[in-house]
Amino acid sequence: MKKVGIVMGSDSDLPIIKKATDTLKALEIPFEVHVYSAHRTPDQARDFARSARAKGFGAIIAAAGMAAHLAGAIAANTTLPVIGIPCSSAVLDGIDALLATVQMPSGIPVATVAVNGGVNAALLCAQILAVEDTELAQKLDDKRRKDAAAVLEKDAGIADRL
Ligand code: RP5
Q1: Among residues of the chain, what percentage have pLDDT more than 70?
Q2: Are the CB atoms for 10 and 67 separated by under 8 Å?
Q3: Res 67: pLDDT
Q4: Whose CA is nearest to atom 13 of ligand 1?
Q5: Burial tier of 159 (Cβ tally within 10 Å: 0-12, 13-18, 19+)
Q6: Predicted confidence band at 78 (pLDDT cuts at 50, 70, 90)?
Q7: How far is the CA of 85 from the centre of ligand 1 (A)?
């Protein structure tokens, strides 16, 4: 199976990345994690993106906050699918990172998930890899059924909580 590459702009983004790695682990998808910044370590971020396909990655998650150019900078250097996670910060609460991540120019796409959306970033990667992997597709179907059952269980009990 192809690996998922995960890059975060700072180790302060780790709580958001943890949501992604927990999700990948539950689906038994291999991943590799790095702290590379578009601004503080641009050479390492570029080299990672340029070599990712040859190293067996199938999709990349890039998480950053504030002036969040990491996902775009990674996407500029690979044609692998790049999922951007805008991370919230104290001052603008993630609106800054959301706009910086989502507003990519035509030609260089970044699939942007919600602010702090670590789970969906991992699930999108899983769905991309599952296009060519029926076993993984089955795991995703099972998860959807399990998640729906959990909601219906809450539905059954909601009246008793009022
Ligand atoms: C971004 O700046 C990082 O992705 C992080 O979300 C934010 C703050 O980084 P630190 O100052 O905590 O290292 O580049």
Answers
A1: 100
A2: no
A3: 98
A4: 10
A5: exposed
A6: very high
A7: 13
Mean per-residue pLDDT, 28-52: 98
Specify the residue with its C-alpha closest to ligand 1, atom 1. 65
- Domain limits for position 70: 3-133
- What is the distance between the alpha carbons of residues 54 and 47, in angstroms, rounded to a whole number? 12
**Which residues are near ligand 1 (CB < 6 Å)?**
9-10, 12-13, 37, 64-66, 87, 89
3-state secondary structure 18-87: HHHHHHHHHCCCCEEEEECCCCCCHHHHHHHHHHCCCCCEEEEEEEEECCCCHHHHHHCCCCCCEEEEEE
State the greatest distance between any 2 C-alpha atoms of the chain, in Å, as a whole number.
Answer: 57
- Here the tokens at position 9 are 């702009």
Q: What is the pLDDT of residues 95-132, one digit of tens each?
A: 999 999 999 999 999 999 999 999 999 999 999 999 99
How many structural domains does the chain have?
1
Give a yes or no: residue 156 inside a domain: no
